[in-house]
Specification:
Elements lengths: L19 H16 L1 H8 L18 E3 L14 H8 L3 E3 L7
Antiparallel strand pairs: 1-2
Helix pairs in contact: 1-2
């Protein structure tokens, strides 16, 4: 599997949050414009078993999207107040990620 990073430089406001499904829809639209609807339909035919593209939600530069797992696994903070404050965060600074 190959991973790609796309940088979006908006020139205006967005009408909806940049979620993965919204971005995927736009990628499909662009694919259909370039290669035709028939080719897109062929690519989507067995998408649930063989996805040709998986798109994450957008996130701010310098951050990675906060995983949807318990914060207890992500941080050393153990108090209720620490966990509550951490839930408000949309992302995690790259420098805080420990690779293992």
């Amino acid at each position: 599997m190959k991973f790609y990073k796309f940088v979006i430089k908006p020139k205006g406001a967005f009408g909806t949050p940049l979620t993965g499904d919204t971005l995927f829809g736009h990628m499909c639209w662009a694919f259909a414009e370039k290669y035709g609807e028939e080719k897109l339909e062929e690519m989507l035919e067995d998408y649930d078993q063989n996805p040709f593209l998986i798109v994450s939600d957008a996130f701010f530069s310098g951050y990675v999207k906060k995983p949807t797992i318990s914060d207890l696994y992500l941080q050393d903070e153990k108090t209720f107040e620490d966990i509550k404050n951490n839930l408000k965060k949309k992302g995690i600074k790259k420098k805080t990620i420990i690779s293992g």
